[in-house]
Amino acid sequence: xxxxxxxxxxxxxMGVVMLFFWVTRGxxxxxxxxxxxxxxxxxxLPIIIISLAIGVYLTYLGLKGRREG
Length: 69
Hints:
This protein is mostly helical. The protein has one domain (5-68). Helices cover 91% and strands 0% of the residues. Helix 1 (5-36) packs antiparallel against helix 2. The longest helix is centred in the N-terminal third of the chain and has 32 residues, at 5-36. Keywords: Membrane, Transmembrane, Transmembrane helix.
């Protein structure tokens, strides 16, 4: 499937924004949630990991499409 440059830019932008938000959320999780309530913090850990993986994949797709386009 061939993506246009505009679609690649959109994927790249969404990936970078997701990474920014979830990295800062991960820091907040580590600094606050993990210290106060470990059980609640462990419930949020998979959400953070999955969201970071999605952000990395979107960024990868955007960069790959820009290089090929």
